[in-house]
TrEMBL record:
Domain of life of the source: Eukaryota
Gene behind the chain: KLK15
Chain coiled-coil ranges: none
Transmembrane segments: none
GO cellular component, one term: secretory granule
Protein name per UniProt: Kallikrein related peptidase 15
Leader sequence segment: none
Organism: Sarcophilus harrisii (Tasmanian devil)
Alphabetized Gene3D superfamilies for the sequence: Trypsin-like serine proteases
A GO biological process held by the record: proteolysis
UniProt keyword list: Disulfide bond, Hydrolase, Protease, Serine protease
GO MF, one annotated term: serine-type endopeptidase activity
Length: 272
């Protein structure tokens, strides 16, 4: 154990040296520049219908734990702030960054506690309204090639826009299937709200966005909750809700539309 922790500290220090010019750990996503779309480990698209991500190709991906149990995904948006879904608020959150295989220690991972949790004040569990939450880490992370913030959007997502969803959620719709150990990615696109509301009987509001593949077969699922939907290098969505059990035939996943909360996000971060 001591050797593993020492290896971690050494790797973190070396990573910090690369960012010394910008004062690591004060570097933010603005310093790091444009972040690319998911680089899948295979050319074809298992998240449901996806494939295992190339290790550390989603450096903003965060794993939230309740004790030793994996609970939700999340996204790093600065060196000390994480964005996730409000329904992931368990009150006892532990944060793991730089993860790919949750059962293996690669030496690039960093562990943090949560100093403060800020679920949206209007969050409503029953209707999934305002399903968004900010977490202020107990101390800044050391940015590296494996741990980097994702950019917040400068506009709202467009219909047909290509995106990537990632998470450690179910990779099959069958019951009794265990969550995967490795991070999975899927290429999906933004779908029309009108057709999505037909599927979900008008429950999709203007602060939500639907994404998937026309005809189904690719979707976020249980265990992906709170994780990122990244379009053009920007965090456009947070995995929120959908059909349960996950439906791989017709109904898409529904995401919190991040662009609608930029003012709230910046206000909370500025005041805290």
């Amino acid at each position: 154990m001591a050797r593993s922790l020492g290896h971690f500290r050494e790797r973190c220090w070396k990573s910090c040296l690369r960012f010394e010019a910008v004062g690591c750990p004060e570097a933010t996503s603005q310093v790091l520049g444009f972040l690319s779309l998911c680089d899948l480990s295979q050319d074809n698209d298992k998240v449901i219908g996806g494939e295992e991500c190339r290790p550390h190709s989603q450096p903003w991906q965060v794993a939230l734990f309740e004790g030793s149990r994996f609970n939700c995904g999340a996204s790093l948006i600065s060196n000390q702030w994480v964005l996730t879904a409000a329904h992931c608020n368990t009150g006892k959150i532990r944060v793991r960054l730089g993860e790919h295989n949750l059962r293996l220690w690669d030496g690039v991972e960093q562990l943090r506690g949560v100093a403060y949790a800020f679920p949206h004040p209007r969050y409503e569990k029953r209707g999934h309204h305002d399903d968004i939450m900010l977490l202020r880490l107990n101390r800044p992370v050391c940015l590296s090639n494996s741990i980097r913030p994702v950019a917040l959007p400068t506009r709202c997502p467009r219909q047909g826009e290509q995106c990537v969803v990632s998470g450690w959620g179910l990779v099959a719709e069958f019951k009794n299937v265990k969550l995967p150990n490795t991070l999975h990615c899927a290429n999906i696109s933004i779908l029309p709200t009108t057709s999505c509301n037909t599927d979900y009987r008008g429950q999709v509001t203007d602060t939500m966005v639907c994404a998937g593949v026309e005809g189904g077969g690719t979707d976020s699922c249980e265990g992906d909750s709170g994780g990122p939907l990244v379009c053009g290098g920007a965090l456009q969505g947070i995995v929120s809700w959908g059909d349960v059990p996950c439906d791989t035939t017709t109904k898409p996943g529904v995401y919190t539309k991040v662009c609608k909360y930029l003012g709230w996000i910046r206000d909370v971060m500025r005041k805290n």
